[in-house]
Amino acid sequence: MTPQAQAPILEALLACRARGVAPFYAPGHKGSPLRDLEGKLPLEAAVFELDLPELPEFDSLHDPQGPIQAAQQLAAELYGAAQTWFLVNGSTCGVQAMILAVCKPGDTILVPRNAHRSVAAGLILADAVPVYLEPQVWQTQGLVLGVSAQSVAEALATHPQARGVLLVSPSYDGISCDLAQIAEVVHDHGLPLLVDEAHGAHFGFHPDLPPLALASGADLVVQSTHKTLSALSQASMLHLGQGGRVQPGRVAQALRLLQTTSPSSVLLASLDLARRQLALQGKQLMQETLNLAAQARSWKLDRLQILAPQHLPAGYQLDPTRLCVLLSDLALTGFDADDWLREQFGVVAELPSLRQLVFILSLGNTQTHLERLKAGLVALEEFPKSQIQNAPLPAPPTSPPLRLSPRQAYFAPAVAVPLETAIGAISAELLCPYPPGIPIVMPGEEITAEIVDYLHLLKMSPGCTISGAADPQLRTIRVVQLS
Amino acid sequence: MTPQAQAPILEALLACRARGVAPFYAPGHKGSPLRDLEGKLPLEAAVFELDLPELPEFDSLHDPQGPIQAAQQLAAELYGAAQTWFLVNGSTCGVQAMILAVCKPGDTILVPRNAHRSVAAGLILADAVPVYLEPQVWQTQGLVLGVSAQSVAEALATHPQARGVLLVSPSYDGISCDLAQIAEVVHDHGLPLLVDEAHGAHFGFHPDLPPLALASGADLVVQSTHKTLSALSQASMLHLGQGGRVQPGRVAQALRLLQTTSPSSVLLASLDLARRQLALQGKQLMQETLNLAAQARSWKLDRLQILAPQHLPAGYQLDPTRLCVLLSDLALTGFDADDWLREQFGVVAELPSLRQLVFILSLGNTQTHLERLKAGLVALEEFPKSQIQNAPLPAPPTSPPLRLSPRQAYFAPAVAVPLETAIGAISAELLCPYPPGIPIVMPGEEITAEIVDYLHLLKMSPGCTISGAADPQLRTIRVVQLS
Questions:
Q1: pLDDT at B141 exceeding the cut of 80
Q2: In A, which residues are within 8 Å of B20 by CB distance?
Q3: How far is CA B330 from CA A189, A252, B138, B347, B355, in A?
Q4: Contact criterion met (CB below 8 Å) for A32 and A259
Q5: Among A107-121, A219-233, B159-173, the least confident range
Q6: What pLDDT is recorded for position B389?
Q7: Of the residues A66, A124, B379, B471, which has the maximum number of CB atoms within 10 A of its CB?
Q8: CA of B350 to nearest chain A CA: how many angstroms apart?
């Protein structure tokens, strides 16, 4: 058989499906297809037949005047948005469009230090200059909580030239900031609040869930409809708030730069169907998911803990459907626990880290999935108790000075140098230790002696990984080559 | 029934499908699904189940080390590329990545005046400065032919600071430039040749088709695998040539900016399956498509002509599968003919213009489709003969001076002013009359008196449309507001 007879991607996907795991990851549909009102499966039945171009009978994503416009309008009404854009290039392009809509080259924007990498990409594309907000960290667990209203107020006082504030809420772990209070602070400065709500598309559709960022006054909000609802992967939404602080024309113009001119009608239809499902059955589906989550929270676990609202300091809210399992008392890392659960129980988490495992519960999960999770966690408790003290992580170095904008650093020639000789150079890469997932150096920032010392310390910490580096062993680091 | 029970996008797609038209548009699969080696329909059967995230068992698009890497490697081998990247944000992001990989801010790049709007977007994102290559035009038909090797050589002589040359080949109408000769000219200057081959993913897989841009020596090539082959919409490929003139790291870095971090595994699988189909059955499928095209070219038509190789001047090649029907002798425009064919015969073209209709024939078309096309065209011939002379279009104005880079113009504040008062101002928009589809003014260019005169002339020409303007009546034009 010729090698060309292989189809590695399909074969891998079929193998994943054949394993029949209990899925606690995104996409939220977990393989359960979207149905029409008669219970039929239009997308499953005819993906290729429904994969149509921007015919006059259909519509154009970049200049919608027909069904796409109508579908976006229905989504806007459901979410309480002034306007909604459907996205086919993921929340990534929504985050980038938010930055491009608010910043001209050289403009300052406040962004959290623990932002998703799409924020760094947006800064590079717009040539915006970041002022980083340091999120609060729960040191013992190595968990990022989020940004407080006070830190936003302080940053705005020191950086009156800022054009807007971008936040991530909720976090991967399901922790939301006090967006209503933050929105007040930001709006008092006459600025727009932009929220990466990728993990919160289901918020507000049940009284036990945190409120939507839009309801808290946010001006632009991106949601991964595929992450906690039923849309297909890379199908997202961008909502405009009611405050009139952002020009919708600037958003549409940015999205024209960032999205294909051949959008998939199937991805768009999945957004439309996910919106309808949420509108017609949202509360009931959320209730079922919340019931599963409440069950999990009622399990009698000795050595494992599931993150609960009472663990969090005031000002932070927890998405009850997000199960963040704290492994502090066990003598194995989250990475090892993740491998073990997958291999032994076919239970797949969304995100392992050193001391936690995050499980996404969504409307696609079932009682069977939950029982497998319980069996896995109960067995995990048999692992020996940790012998090492759960010492708090060493305090991270202070944020270094920004010497080049992220865009300047992106385009600058770079060279790899030994870590020891990098002190004083400008980093060409982002280095982000997990836990807690806050970059200690971003492209364009100076590599200080304190940072090099901290990196040496991290390299010796078992289970700590550093993401973003071209050399994963971190013997070398890429720095900007100044001519 | 609540309005939220509607699903406008799905309903529109189902209605399109129910009409059962003869499709002569992209995507190339024309609704015919990709099968596995046993003839089964894995994607149709389980779109949601196969929509999986970047699990460890699967792979990561931005850092592929497993099945995605293997699939890209098979595609590279099939196309003769040094490396291939699968794209889930359409050829749009591939064109942008080509520009970002070759240009730093302020760098000059040669681009054809008739480029797709993704090129303008790429110039904006990279802050590259375009030098426009004027394509040759067949004035009587209002058809753009392409860029000649001579005009590339002249432009490179006058602009030695250029960092690369980007071309579109083939055109929408199926016309290819002499890429081998152009590549020689470009390589003699030590520069890379970038080719937007969106409409030529099927080239080179049959001796009667034009050669692939890669085979002609191109250094980076984007192909819309969904346009003439069987991938799903917005699934494309970017190939690196063998010349070593572009750093693959720069390409990968750009694609990380431009593509979602939640890529659809279904889109990726469709690229993998389309590649396998082409490898195993390509020549036979191309033969069948060529047979359909040959049939169409043998029809006895009196007033309609199908563009044929002998119509083209030396140096240009025609994709025989692309049927560009010339309406010169009929008293109706291509737009009217398009509507009429769609309504009366359910025959849907890819692209109507004033004096042509372009039909895409691909491996998804059948004998039945072709017979409906024949019936439609034969009936179209009954329309009265044109009473107006087919006067050549007025010669377009010379390209105006570039006063701001496209990026500067994108971010500049803009205001709408009456056309008459715009002389001397800097355009904030692209104005592109069809035919022939070559912009007469681009963002950042000066609006000259000659351009305003020409726009007045176009406004009085029946059937001429001007795309890109915020005011489609062109009473006003958006210009940069200089502070």
A1: no
A2: none
A3: 63, 39, 19, 19, 9
A4: no
A5: A107-121
A6: 52
A7: A124
A8: 9
Three-class SS of residue A98? helix
| One-character DSSP codes across A328-384 | TTBSS-HHHHHHHHHHHH-EEESEE-SSEEEEE--TT--HHHHHHHHHHHHHHTTSP
Q: How far is A385 from chain B (nearest CA, A)?
A: 27
Q: How many CB pairs under 8 A join A and B?
A: 302
**Cβ-count burial B129-148 (b if 16+ within 10 Å, e if not):** bbbbbbbbbbeebbbbbbbb
Cβ-Cβ contacts under 8 Å, B334 against chain A: none
Chain A, nearest residue to B413 by Cα: A104
What pLDDT digit, counting tens, does each position of B65-121 carry?
Answer: 999 999 999 999 999 999 999 999 999 999 999 999 999 999 999 999 888 889 999
HSE, CB side, 13 Å, CA atoms: give it for residue A27.
Answer: 34
- Going by the DSSP 8-state scheme, the letter that residue A270 receives in this structure is H
User: What is the tens place of the pLDDT at every residue in A183-214?
Assistant: 999 999 999 999 999 999 999 999 999 999 99
Q: What are phi and psi of A240, to 5 degrees?
A: -100, 130
| Mean pLDDT, residues B112-137 taken together | 93
Residue A228 has pLDDT above 90, yes or no: yes
Note the pLDDT of residue A244: 97
pLDDT at B390: 55
Chain A positions touching B14 (Cβ under 8 A) are 42, 50
Which pair of tokens denotes residue A333?
Answer: 């890392």
Helices and strands in chain B: count of H runs, count of E runs: 14, 21
B301: buried, middle or exposed (CB in 10 Å: 19+, 13-18, 0-12)? middle
Average pLDDT over residues A27-54: 92
User: What kind and span of H or E run contains B12?
Assistant: helix B8-19
Percentage of chain A lying above the pLDDT 70 cut: 97
Q: Name which of B9, B92, B271 to mutate to probe chain A: the one with the most chain A Cβ atoms within 10 A of its Cβ.
A: B9
Give start and end residues of each alpha helix (H) in A163-264: 179-188, 225-228, 248-258
Can you count the helices (H) and strands (E) in chain A?
Answer: 14, 21
pLDDT tens readout for residues B423-480 = 999 999 888 876 667 888 999 999 999 999 988 888 877 667 787 778 878 889 999 9
Residue B377 phi, psi (nearest 5): -70, -40
Q: How far is CA A445 from the centre of its chain?
A: 24
Nearest CA in chain B to A6: B276
For residue B126, which of B408, B432, B444, B443 has the smallest C-alpha distance? B408
Q: Say whether B233 and A262 touch across the interface (CB within 8 A).
A: yes
Q: What percent of chain B has pLDDT over 90?
A: 77
d(CA B317, CA A433): 55
Q: How far is B421 from chain A (nearest CA, A)?
A: 24
Question: What is the token pair recorded at A191?
Answer: 């600025």
Question: What kind and span of H or E run contains A466?
Answer: strand A465-467
For B45, residues 6+ apart whose C-beta sits below 8 A from its C-beta are A44
For residues B1 and B6, give the distance between their C-alpha atoms in angstroms, rounded to a whole number.
Answer: 9
CB contact under 8 A, A262 and B91: yes
More confident residue, A111 or A140: A111
Among all chains, which residue has been given the structure tokens 């498509």?
B289
* Pairing relationship of beta strands B193-196 and B162-168 according to DSSP bridges: parallel
Of residues A53, A77, A411, nearest to B233 (C-beta): A53
pLDDT digits (tens, 9 = 90+) for A306-355: 999 888 998 999 999 999 999 877 888 888 899 999 999 999 999 888 78
Those residues with Cβ within 8 angstroms of residue B397's Cβ, 6 or more apart along the chain or in another chain: B440, B448, B450, B451, B453, B454
Q: Do B74 and A411 touch (CB under 8 A)?
A: no
A432 - beta bridge partners?
A467
pLDDT score at B353: 82
